[in-house]
Design brief:
The protein has two domains: about 5-190, Roll (Endonuclease I-creI); about 215-300, no CATH class. Helix content is about 60%, strand content about 10%. It has helices at about 5-15, 20-30, 50-60, 85-95, 115-130, 145-160, 180-190, 195-240, 250-260, 270-275, 280-300, and strands at about 35, 40-45, 80, 130, 140-145, 165-170, 170-175. It has a four-stranded antiparallel β-sheet with strand order 4-5-7-6. It has a three-stranded antiparallel β-sheet with strand order 1-2-3, covered by helices on one side. A hairpin with a 2-residue loop joins β6 and β7. α1 runs parallel beside α3 (about 50-60). The longest helix has about 50 residues, at about 195-240. The chain is rod-shaped, with a radius of gyration of 35 Å. The relative contact order is 0.09. The model has no long low-confidence stretch (mean pLDDT about 90). This is Probable cell division protein WhiA. Keywords: Cell cycle, Cell division, DNA-binding. It comes from Evtepia gabavorous.
Length: about 300
């Protein structure tokens, strides 16, 4: 099952509560389903949990049965329809949609309480929502074919403290989030706290994995720098030896040359600790740079 499917299954595990919330959720379903017109309601879903919830939801919200309903136990898409004129008229009346108006609207009079607003969002997500697997990215969206509904949903979300973004895709108007924190908060609010926790865990694992990768890359880069520096220092020491200049160096420079040749794999800090007496990393670095400078002078034309 996809992550979006898991979210919808969790949302559907919540009991149908107050009638006002059932009506708000059902209205969210109607405005975000495949078709809601004066001639037909058509809801198509691949979620068995949503398919099982729908009949009871519409029965409690409106006291109506679907004329056609999909079997939750049948794989694939389940189709629910209402085409009886008296049932459609009741849906329009109870949801306060004006059949003579040019477009659908959200009935804010039905959403005065916060719990009803969240129920509406739950219905909208169940019918027209999706969310990306957090292992791949962060994206939650709600898609409707009704422009004014999409704009009014943005207003509703802003009033609840969310800051959604908008776009269009073919004939759909999309309200979406890409901030993981907003997605976590919204999923928790509409009834999917377990899924929200899964998203948080995935984000924590991703941050940890990225941190480990950065440290590994940094350490690998440091190793490369150490190896390159050691090779340059050993070449300089060999040049000085070939020139017979090593014996003319000061005791400190000779010690630095001997330690680098004896321990080509050690870092500056490790070499500095082997000096007699031990010196700082900066002091040893200065001595090795001096050897490189002297070798360059010896080989200059």
């Amino acid at each position: 099952m996809s992550f979006a499917g898991e979210v919808k299954a969790e949302l559907c595990r919540g009991k149908l509560g107050r009638k006002c919330c059932a009506q708000a959720e059902a209205c969210g379903v109607l405005l975000y389903c495949n078709r809601f017109s004066l001639s037909e309601v058509k809801i198509v879903t691949e979620s068995p949990a949503f398919a099982q919830r729908l009949p009871g939801l519409f029965r409690k919200a409106f006291g109506v049965e679907f004329d056609e309903k999909g079997d939750p136990d049948t794989p694939g898409k389940r189709i629910f329809t209402i085409s009886a004129p008296e049932k459609l008229a009741l849906l329009w009346e109870l949801c306060a949609f004006d059949p003579s108006g040019p477009a659908h609207h959200i009935n804010f009079g039905m959403l005065e309480e916060t719990h009803c607003r969240l129920a509406f969002l739950r219905g909208a997500f169940l019918a027209g929502g999706s969310v990306t697997d957090p292992q791949k990215g962060y994206h939650l969206e709600l898609a409707t074919t009704h422009l004014r509904v999409s704009r009014e949903l943005d207003t509703l979300l802003l009033e609840l403290g969310y800051a959604p973004k908008e776009t269009t895709r073919k004939a759909n108007y999309i309200t979406y989030f890409k901030q993981s924190e907003a997605i976590e908060d919204l999923l928790t609010a509409i009834g999917a706290p377990v899924s929200a926790m899964e998203l948080m865990n995935a984000k924590a694992e991703k941050l940890l994995r990225n941190g480990v990768n950065r440290r590994v890359n940094c350490e690998a880069a440091n190793v490369d720098k150490t190896v390159d520096a050691a090779l340059e220092q050993r070449r300089a020491i060999q040049i000085l030896r070939d020139r017979g200049a090593l014996e003319t160096l000061s005791p400190k420079l000779r010690e630095a040359a001997q330690l680098r040749e004896a321990h080509p794999e050690l870092s500056l800090a490790q070499l500095a600790a082997l000096c007699e007496p031990p010196v700082t990393k900066s002091s040893l670095s200065h001595r090795l740079r001096k050897l490189i400078q002297l070798s360059a002078q010896d080989t200059a034309p």
